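The protein record quoted for completeness.
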Amino acid sequence: GARTCATVHLWLIALGRGKMIYYIAENPVSLVRWRGSVVPRACRWAIPCAALAVLYSHILHVWTDWSLSLEEEPTKFEVYAWGLITYVIGFLVVFRAQHAYSRYWEGITLVERACGVWLNGFSNLIAFCSTDPTKQEQVEEFQYVLSRLMSLLFCYCMSDISNLDRSEFPHLDLSGIDPACLEYLEATSAKQNVALQWLQRMIVECNRSGVIDIGAPILSRVFQELSIGIVHLMDAKKISVVPYPFGFAQVVWVLLVFFSVLPVPVMCAIGMSTQKAAGYTFLIVFVFWSVHHLAIQIEQPFGDAPNDLPLAQVNHRFNKVLVRLLEMTAQETPNLLKKPDMSMRFMQRKSSLEQTLPQRPQTMMKKVRSLLGEMDFSRAEGVGPDSSLPSSRRGTAASMSSLDSEITRRSASSA
């Protein structure tokens, strides 16, 4: 059914139809792949270190007295030194991975927010257009140029914050627009700023000519959304321009290289067998280098790597929504063809309320019983309200008996 079709679609994307890797969380088989995985890169360090541990353990067996090394226990200083080195390197690696994930999530958040506010501003401008029949030609020209400039603006912003070629971000057809203006736009280095300036200028001119039939205070919301979108994208650009600090990256890499070789003599010195020394060395090195390579892959998310953000898909979706909002059906308000029978709806609501009314006294009675306890209502077991009860509780039992009778009477009358 639909689940099978979704699974096939995700597999087709994973086989090369899309750059970003999509997977099914409930299906672990979709996680078994080499493309976009950090396992091969981590194994480049883990396998040689494990082989070195095997060689070092074999040398200790052949050239030294292995029984003497087994009798020697590590000193407290060696244990504390090993723990301190492991803690420092682990903290730096995890810190970089956390920082990389923050950059990754912040990048897609800023892009989607800019996309959302610009589409909302475009929708507002379409809704603000005049309905005067004498200005319909001007309205159509305004909507045509507006959609093209919005598409150009988003295309330039996507190519500016990413490392991809601008051909990866197509825009709507620009036929009919002044070629001289397009040549100037291609030659300038501030393409997105010029496109935004043209948009704002065109909105002001159309407001003066009456093409946009809305008050200036409400129209200012559109300018606010345009400015918010460009600020979000300029904020996202810092992620692609500013890399992870060089000092941090250098220290982490040097410590990881040192830590990859350090487990080899440590595992053999504490008296482990060859198999255990190789296994523990592989595991330690593999874990640290996996987290490190994962951070490297996602800390620059605006590229064409398998784990990068799908900016091309976001650009395609933006253009698709622009085209849909230009359709006449999307610009027309739905009409009410048949007036609903409001009296019948009221009668149905009244009957449903009447059906629930008899249940309310019983519900209230259950709450009263739970508050006062079952011992006050033991009349069903053959004990009267005045028998074997303390004098302080007989009044309560009698009052509850009368309350029970009154509620039962009202319930029967309402039914």
